[in-house]
Amino acid sequence: MKAYINAKIYTMDIECPEASYLIVNESRIIETGCSFDDSSYRSRLTIEDIIDLEGRVVVPSFWESHLHIVDGLRSLEELNLRSISSLEELEKAIASYVDRIGVNEWVIGHGWDEEKLFGGKFPDRQLLDKLHSEHPVMLIRMDGHSLCLNTKAIDMMQIERLQASSEISLDNEGIPTGMLFENAANEVMQNIVKSFSEEYIEKLVLRAQELFLQNGISSVNDICTFYGRYFDIYRKLQKSGKLKMRITTAPYGIDVESLEEFDARKCDETDVLRIAAPKLFMDGSFGSRTALLSEAYADATGSYGLQLIEREQLKEVILQNETLNQPITIHAIGDKAVNIVLDCIEQTRVHNHRDIRNRIEHIQIVQDYDVDRFKALDVTASFQPVFLYEEELTLARLGQERFPMIYRFKSFLDRGANVVLNSDFPYGGGTMPLKLDNSKYIGFEPILGMHAACYKQLNPPESIEPMQALQCYTSNAAFVNYREKELGKLKKDYFADFIVLSADILICSPEELLRTEVIYTFINGELVYQK
User: Are 512 and 503 in contact (CB under 8 A)?
Assistant: First the structure.
């Protein structure tokens, strides 16, 4: 048993919103309050069991409800392109990377932005061949919705066998240019990932955990896990005692193999490792101009984006899951995509008495008449505030006149919808600000997300208060994951997942918020990170 006293605790519990102490027994909180009296616990608490937090702020640990564990760490461990701004730099970076790999191994780069690196145009295989032709090269755009291959990579992946579509860029002679979008890009990426060793994936997961715990994250939604073997690796790490963070995985919703693999593993779920709603994609992204809009892109006349799943197919998937009392998670960035998804959910609601918590991801632009439908249909709105750093891209794609419809955090909260905030790490985001130690934020950090949601709105009327942002990273995230009775709050009988901060993130200045550090992270009452 441990007692944490002399603290300023934001509990996220409306019945007792603030406290000065909490008592933990094993993995659970057994008491919170405002005036600690050790007389009731004198026989069970030693002096060492009473920890004086010296007035520091305590909040529930963060729940990062949309990221990609393996791909996120790959973007840091493989060739990171985010800081590269010239072809000369890129050529040197590729050459340096090649020195570390074997013959015929892939050069895989992450995070390019065509505006910064390729003069505003998508690259092609001829350009990549000039940079490097001996190894297969795959450079993935910062949004993860498109990529470019050099000729050797095209030949190895047999791109010509893929069915011709708007997702495969062809030149005037019908030959692939090297640019792939959406499903075509995803197929290539997943074929490569399948070859990764278990040891490599374990290394990535443990490095991810280290970063997440440093930033106060105790729970994550690995939003599209793809493979059952990833779950097996997570489970192995948990059994060995190495996995501390809570992971909620998700199959790819239209991939039969992925669905079957995860269904077979439901019996292996634990308090730490869960399987959640399958993930589907209605559209793409702003950066790749594949998000589905009701009006054409401002910088691409006649282009409205891509619809990646037909209405009837989506309705069938929703109905199948609803029959099983399961929700789904649907990626929809453009306003037309959001509208179609809401229509499909509404048209398939045959079990209104069931507690089905569907969620729509991104919602970067939405019509006003669709905002109210989220609450009415019990759909959670999932936003990524870090995308607010993509101001130039958003302006180019949509034009200033559509800004009143973007990133509508406040409207959704004001109208009673459940809202969660997260990052989609490693995708999206522009130039990141600096931390207290002068290192750059990576993009997944909840402190960064809170700052963006409260103080960096491209649509200023949609800024929210710090307490609202904190709810979106804690209790609201627990709710959409059906764990609101045991996580996301600091109250009796809840798991003791909490963090101690260097500043009061609810009242400090915007500048101080960005400089705030996590001092301690606890999961199940165990100290898992100490600065």
Answer: yes
Q: How many domains does the chain have?
A: 2
- pLDDT, position 163: 54
pTM: 0.95
What's the pLDDT at 253? 79
1 lies in a domain? no
338 and 213 within one domain: yes
- In a 10 Å sphere around its CB, with 0-12 CB exposed, 13-18 middle and 19+ buried, how is residue 51 labelled? middle
Report pLDDT for 351.
67
The token pair that represents 513 in the structure block: 């918020």
Q: Going by C-beta distance under 8 Å and a sequence separation of 6 or more, which residues neighbour residue 286? A: 143, 333, 364, 390, 393, 394, 397, 398
pLDDT at 24: 98
Q: Are residues 154 and 258 in the same domain?
A: no
* Structural domain that includes position 98: 86-193
Residue 479, token pair as written in the block: 């709710």
What pLDDT, on a 0 to 100 scale, did the predictor assign at position 166?
A: 72
HEC sequence for 425-470: ECCCCCCCCECCCCCECCCCCHHHHHHHHHHCCCCHHHCCCHHHHH
Q: For position 16, what pLDDT does the model report?
A: 94
Q: Which of 171, 193, 215 finishes a domain?
A: 193
Do residues 225 and 132 share a domain? no
The pLDDT of residue 42 is: 76
CATH number for position 439: 3.20.20.140
The pLDDT value given to residue 142: 94
Q: What's the CATH number where 184 sits?
A: 3.10.310.70
Phi and psi based region of residue 177 (left: phi greater than 0; alpha: psi -120 to 50; beta: remaining):
alpha
270 three-state secondary structure: coil
Task: Look at residue 40 and tell me if it is in a domain.
Answer: no
For residue 431, the model assigns a pLDDT of 86
**Residue 95 included in any domain:** yes
Question: In what helix (H) or strand (E) does residue 169 lie, and over which residues does it extend?
Answer: strand 168-170
CB 155 within 8 A of CB 100: no
Intervals of the chain under pLDDT 70: 160-165, 351
Q: What pLDDT is attached to residue 385?
A: 98
- Residue 204 and residue 155 share a domain: no
Is 223 inside a domain boundary? yes
